[in-house]
Amino acid sequence: MNARRHSLGFCIAVALSFSAATLFARDTVLIHGHIYTGNPKAPWVQALATSGSRIDAVGTDGEILSRRSPKTEVIDLQGRTVVPGFSDSHTHMWFGALALHGLNLSTPESSITPEL
Question: Radius of gyration of the chain from Cα atoms?
């Protein structure tokens, strides 16, 4: 399979012992992995290459290793899985408010709510 160019919008979340700063500090290749691409024609690949802050290519270990330079950091995933980063910023305001302030479960006789 040919290496394919992807933007950082594809993004990755890697559950390994290195930080995002280390990952994008210089050109990096991830090899020997199980990397989900989101591309229906090639949903899984072995390796991924970054250039700066962009995912430059995905493909086989051989294809990606051919792109490395002497300064490239090579990270062996040892079969670990890499998936797109998941960012969920939506909220459920009603449930959030209930969680913060609780529910008024008082009976009508002892309610502090004024009667109309």
Answer: 24
